[in-house]
Each structure stands twice: as structure tokens, then as C-alpha cells.
Specification:
Blueprint lengths: L2 E16 L9 E11 L5 E12 L6 E14 L4 H29 L31
Length: about 140
């Protein structure tokens, strides 16, 4: 059974625009992306989690985007099914950091109580990219 150990996480990018002029209800839409890149030996991987929020009405007075990155030790990765499982485990490990970052930022922006919903990822929908073979420089 594959397993991971989070070695390091960091917020790679964080963009906030809060130019809301009047109080009221703000309806947000969200965009989400998550990918995992494995080292050639399969013993390490880097996971990147991106999520953005913006006003559903198209008003550009509020937007937020966050990109988090995590470096993991991977154990028991032999098959593509193992890689798909690692994909899900890495998301589960990084999500609390995303949730904490976004909650703190929303509170600081004057909108306390905002919670990010965890996405339900399905292992059968995980797409694995094939590593590209190395190319030799033209001399």
C-alpha cells in the first residue's frame, strides 16, 4: 500500500484583490487544479494545489487565488494505481494548509468565517502524465 510523508509545504503564490465598496452578500465561484509530479525513481513527488475565488456576478472588486506546493517522500509506489493513490493522499495532506491560509486571509480582509470546501477526488479520474524522455542538446 502506497504512503507519503510531507517533507515541506509552502505557499508559492497568493493574490488578493479586495475593493468591495458596499456591505452585502458576496457570491463566489471557485476554480480548482491539483497535480502531482513524481521523481523518476518514484521516491519523491511534488504536489501543486491551486484554488481561486471570484465574484459570480463578474464584478472584479474581489478575487483571491492561492497556489500551494508540497514535497513528499513516497513509499510503495510501483504501479500507476499506486501513483493515483499518492495523488489522493497528497491532496488530503495539502488541503488543511490551503484551508488555513484562505481562512486567515479572508479574516484579515474583513470577511471572517469563510471556509473552503474540500473537493472530492476520485482515483479513477486522476490522469497521469508520462515523463518526457530526456533530449540531448544539439552541438
Amino acid at each position: 500500500m502506497p504512503a507519503i510523508n510531507l517533507l515541506q509545504q509552502r505557499t508559492r503564490e497568493l493574490h488578493l484583490r479586495n475593493d468591495i465598496q458596499k456591505p452585502g452578500k458576496l457570491e463566489l465561484k471557485s476554480n480548482f487544479n491539483f497535480n502531482v509530479k513524481f521523481a523518476p525513481d518514484g521516491r519523491r513527488c511534488v504536489a501543486t494545489l491551486y484554488q481561486s475565488f471570484e465574484d459570480k456576478g463578474g464584478d472584479e472588486s474581489f478575487s483571491l487565488s492561492v497556489t500551494l506546493e508540497g514535497v513528499f517522500d513516497c513509499m510503495g509506489v510501483v504501479t500507476d494505481s499506486d501513483r493515483r493513490e499518492i495523488h489522493l493522499l497528497a491532496y488530503d495532506a495539502l488541503f488543511p494548509y490551503l484551508q488555513a491560509t484562505v481562512s486567515q486571509l479572508f479574516a484579515g480582509a474583513g470577511m471572517p468565517g469563510f471556509m473552503v470546501k474540500k473537493m472530492k477526488l476520485d482515483q479513477t479520474r486522476v490522469t497521469l502524465s508520462q515523463p518526457k524522455p530526456p533530449t540531448l542538446p544539439i552541438v
